[in-house]
Amino acid sequence: MEGHGPEAPRVRLPQLNLDELLEELQARINAARGTQERVHRLLEAVLSVGRELDLEQALRSIVETAAVLVDAEYAALGVIGPDGSSLSAFHTVGMTEEQITRIGHYPEGHGILGEVIRNPEPLRLEKISRHSASYGYPAHHPPMNSFLGVPIRVRDQVFGNLYLTEKRGGVQFDEEDESVLCTLAVAAGVAIDNARLYEESRLRERWLWANAEISHSLMSASAPAEALRLIAERAREITGSALAVVARPMEGTGSLTVEIAVGIDADAHRGLVLPLSGTLMGLAFSSAAPVASDDVNHDERVSPEPPRFQGLGPAVAVPIGTGSGGIRGVVLVARDAGRPVFSGTETETLRGFAAQAAIAMELAERRKDAERIAVLQDRDRIARDLHDLAIQRLFATGMTLQSAGRFIEHPEAAERVVRAVDDLDETIKIIRSAIFGLRARAGGADDGLRARVVHVVGQQSPVLGFAPSVRMEGLVDTDVPREVADHVVAVLSEALTNIARHAHADRTQIVLATDGHDVRLTVADNGVGIPSEGRRSGLRNMAERAEQLGGQLVVSTPEGGGAALEWWVPLPAA
Prior knowledge:
Layout: H1 18-51, H2 55-69, E1 72-80, E2 87-93, H3 97-103, H4 111-118, E3 123-125, E4 147-154, E5 157-167, H5 175-219, H6 224-239, E6 243-250, E7 255-263, E8 272-275, H7 280-287, E9 291-293, E10 312-322, E11 326-336, H8 344-404, H9 411-439, H10 449-464, E12 469-473, H11 476-479, H12 482-503, E13 508-514, E14 518-525, H13 537-548, E15 552-556, E16 563-570
Parallel strand pairs: 12-13
Antiparallel strand pairs: 1-2, 1-5, 3-4, 4-5, 6-7, 6-11, 7-8, 8-12, 9-10, 10-11, 13-14, 14-16, 15-16
Helix pairs in contact: 1-2, 1-5, 2-5, 5-6, 5-8, 6-8, 8-9, 10-12, 12-13
């Protein structure tokens, strides 16, 4: 058949450029392989991010993964602050610590970064400087051109944004990069939510353990000061604070006294007397609600003297107790400057911890009241038995001896009987004195030296035109006897009166301290100082009081000017 033999003509196929076909096929294979590898990397990234339970580590993992997935030289994750318009934290990849230090403070959310905050939608730019929201970089900042920003949502709330710049190879971020980053952002939102929940559960567990520790301390008859120290230490540790302070009210004075301070510059806080009005801790006490400060070192509600909050920033004061159950004090915690402010959740958790601590304190006080009542009842029974039984029998024995003495003719024997009757009378007097001591009541709480000092300062403040800074150290009420306390109060009143009349000062510091061996009162002001000539009757009176008790008055001029008065006397041996 024609066309089937060996000599039949060949069919000529259309001419094809096989090299181009092979190149196109190879490109498609490479693209498919690249897409497959990218999807695989994305899945691995999602799984890796989802495994993180520590929030800080999760954020770090997210930003590192984002940079790898879209091949960006620089990446950052900005956490949006409570105000919703600025960044409260910034995690970066691609810059060295030296570069970050030279640039200075982390961005707060202006310019292009703020554009993604204001409009939480993906933003892709070829050149950052061409956008209307861009206004340049700070000094020492590396140049950046291409940009890709994607919001991260946690339960429909925008948590923060991913910022990627400078895609390697000089190319632009494309739609596929945006899609990959949006997918990662969804996984990041879930990971952040899980990390938050895990962190909250751990924090709750730590607070519960702290409450149990405080309750055990109080119920095991530990001193109240030990429980207050536990409250301060645990509050500082769990909130990541640098300082924790606990103040309690001074009955009948309208003031708080700082009893416990732990952390940075703790010594500057102990013993301070704070008014209820115009101070962070005073406001928390009087309002029975938390009072926060973004920067405690520059807060008008904190007295400048003595300086005690250097290097600190965010702070919050919460009442110990509730309004209905009575406020037993205030705990204040402060973080280092630059640390995040206390969130609403942190504040409420701390408040709950303080409320539980107050309940434990209440139970411990009730138990001690019951023990005290039992002791008083037992004393009353002893006093009654001594009066009704012992005294009557001693009195009857004395009467019998006195009657029998008339029948004794021997002079020495008669004299001994008389002495025995006198001894019985003296014994009856001693027992009656003991009965009176058992039934006597202690004086009121406002009779203590602490309260008297606060009263004097409160009376003099209107005359001075400002409230002096007051600090008391040691067992002032316990170690200083009444007769010495009277002199301390008189000297303080005289010193403040002199300052009001002559010093022209606007700042005064008062320190009252005792170590059990002597009591020392220091009053310093920033006024004009004490002139070399003039009336010194007030100083002479103070010096005479000190000399009467074996002490001394020393007047000096501090480096910054003004005057400093130090009055001290030894305490009588117990």
